[in-house]
TrEMBL record:
Pfam families: adh_short_C2 (PF13561). The keyword 4Fe-4S does not apply. Belongs to the short-chain dehydrogenases/reductases (SDR) family. InterPro entries: KR_dom (IPR057326), NAD(P)-bd_dom_sf (IPR036291), SDR (IPR050259), SDR_fam (IPR002347). It comes from Janibacter alittae. Keywords: Oxidoreductase. SMART domains: PKS_KR. Signal peptide: none annotated. Residues 4-178 form the Ketoreductase domain. Its EC number is 1.1.1.100. This is 3-oxoacyl-ACP reductase FabG. The lineage of its organism: Bacteria, Bacillati, Actinomycetota, Actinomycetes, Micrococcales. It is an enzyme of class 1 (oxidoreductase).
Length: 236
């Protein structure tokens, strides 16, 4: 495997942290972003507010210093939720989630792609969700933002595929994280019953899919949506 320079947004905890540590274990140089920029044991962290283009530009510039070169693999993982039923969802509930999850990812992809085009190499991996295709009550904003990532990846594939750049989507299902741990037990049980595998996934299993898409073996995989959901979203 060729060692690459990797940036993982929202890589300070949960799935993002698992991805960052997996990539490190495979010999890649890794920087992660977080809003605060607070240190994380064993990881190089830079502060980044992905809803602000200037902050994104500054984070990429700082990452370049730490990596001794431009980002070759972008894992766009940072995101948020603001769940409520559609009829109760405010404009701010909707726009803040879309601005972070979709527009924020766009800002990062746009910033990374310039150097990738010059290098004629790049791996862009966007973290979506089974909810983006499957839907979920109370998550119209989140589902819209996560399904939009597929459009970004497939448009990138058509625009930049000839430059040695791939763009793919990983769509996790219900993964054991701090976020899912906060769900009511009744909700957790209902979700688990709907999953053919009859269990929640692990962050390491998502990280494995991301590691493959970043690898030399995935050079001819682009515009794909890779589900890591125990079969929950099959057919979608």
């Amino acid at each position: 495997m060729t060692a690459r320079r990797v940036l993982v947004t929202g890589g300070n905890r949960g799935i993002g942290e698992a991805i960052a540590r997996r990539m490190q274990s495979e010999g890649h140089r890794v920087v992660v972003t977080s809003r605060s920029g607070d240190p994380v044991d064993g990881l190089q962290v830079v502060a980044c507010e992905i809803t602000d283009s200037d902050s994104v530009d500054a984070a990429f510039a700082e990452a370049r210093e730490h990596l001794d070169g431009d980002v070759e693999v972008l894992v766009a993982n940072a995101g948020m939720t603001k769940d409520t039923l559609l009829m109760r969802m405010s404009d701010e509930d909707f726009s803040s989630v879309v601005d972070t999850n979709l527009h924020g990812t766009f800002r990062c992809v746009r910033r990374a792609s310039t150097a990738m085009v010059k290098a004629r190499f790049g791996r862009v991996i966007l973290l979506s969700s089974v909810v983006g295709l499957y839907g979920s009550p109370g998550q119209a904003n989140y589902a819209a933002s996560k399904s939009g990532l597929i459009g970004i990846a497939r448009s990138m594939t058509r625009e930049l595929g000839a430059r040695g750049i791939t763009a793919n989507v990983v769509a996790p299902g219900f993964i054991e994280t701090d976020m899912t741990a906060e769900l009511p037990e009744k909700t957790r049980s209902e979700y688990q019953a709907a999953i053919p595998a009859k269990r929640y996934g692990q962050a390491a299993e998502v990280a494995g899919a991301v590691a493959f898409l970043a690898s030399d073996d995935a050079a001819y995989v682009s515009g794909a949506v890779i589900p890591v959901d125990g079969g929950l979203g099959m057919g979608h």
